[in-house]
Specification:
- The protein is of the alpha+beta class and 230 residues long.
- It is 28% helix and 16% strand.
- The protein has one domain.
- The strands form three sheets. Strands 3-4-7 form a three-stranded antiparallel β-sheet. A two-stranded antiparallel sheet has the order 1-2. It has a two-stranded antiparallel ribbon with strand order 5-6.
- A hairpin with a 5-residue loop joins strand 3 and strand 4.
Length: 230
């Protein structure tokens, strides 16, 4: 679960080598709350967006596997582990058409798979059993952070975290203390929730729109060039 102690300052996002920290909670002016762990494109096994993207790229490029006719088999997972080592998660398998016509088409199918698994995983955490041990299901920051991790995987040359405009730790703490824990503020969409600055603005939290640079890829429709294997 994300706690108040997870909040870091905008100045702490970047490590001395220029890389982005792989953990911590920040609030941003353009994307709302962001969990840097969820926004990390890497992951163990099949858990990271980068793993999904590498599978799609290697198995569906027109220049790769030119003699293979059978659909590509793609596996993608998201999972969690508690402090006692117990694991739970969602793993899904898909058939994807070989030799897709463009990189955009690859990204579109990858995004559809990513959204499908991300939504299923949040639903798992939100069910009656896991609600007894975690409030993480559909936490305010989860889906938007996941989406940032996806874009960082498929378009690595763009600094999406900086583009979201992180604020100071002081402001982020004030938002947390005023509006409550992120785990209790549910968000079931891949859209940011914005919280007015407690000292400077009036109003209530509101659902906003993604920045244009986080909305350049549209998810493909299931069943046209890919399908889930049951």
């Amino acid at each position: 679960m994300t706690t108040r102690s997870s909040i870091i300052d905008a100045s702490e996002v970047y490590l001395p080598d220029g890389s982005i920290r792989k953990y911590g909670l920040i609030y941003t002016n353009q994307c709302g709350w962001i969990d840097l762990g969820h926004a990390n494109p890497e992951g163990k096994g099949f858990a990271g967006a980068l793993s999904l993207w590498r599978q799609i790229r290697s198995q569906t490029s027109c220049k790769e596997r030119v003699h293979e006719k059978a659909p590509a088999r793609i596996i993608f997972s998201q999972s969690m582990q508690n402090r006692f080592g117990a694991k739970a998660g969602v793993t899904r398998r898909y058939e994807v058409q070989r030799h897709l016509s463009s990189e955009y088409e690859q990204k579109s199918i990858a995004l559809a798979i990513f959204i499908d698994v991300s939504t299923a995983f949040e639903g798992l955490q939100a069910n009656w059993f896991f609600r007894h041990v975690t409030d993480s299901g559909y936490s305010s920051e989860d889906l938007v952070s996941n989406l940032i991790g996806f874009y960082r995987a498929v378009n690595p040359g763009i600094d999406y975290i900086q583009g979201c405009d992180p604020v100071s730790k002081e402001q982020a703490l004030a938002i947390w203390d005023t509006y409550g824990e992120v785990g209790r503020n549910k968000n079931h969409e891949f859209m940011p929730v914005f919280y007015p600055h407690p000292q400077l603005q009036c109003g209530i939290p509101r659902k906003g729109r993604l920045p244009l640079w986080l909305d350049t890829i549209k998810p493909a429709r299931m069943g046209e060039k890919f399908k889930e294997l049951r």
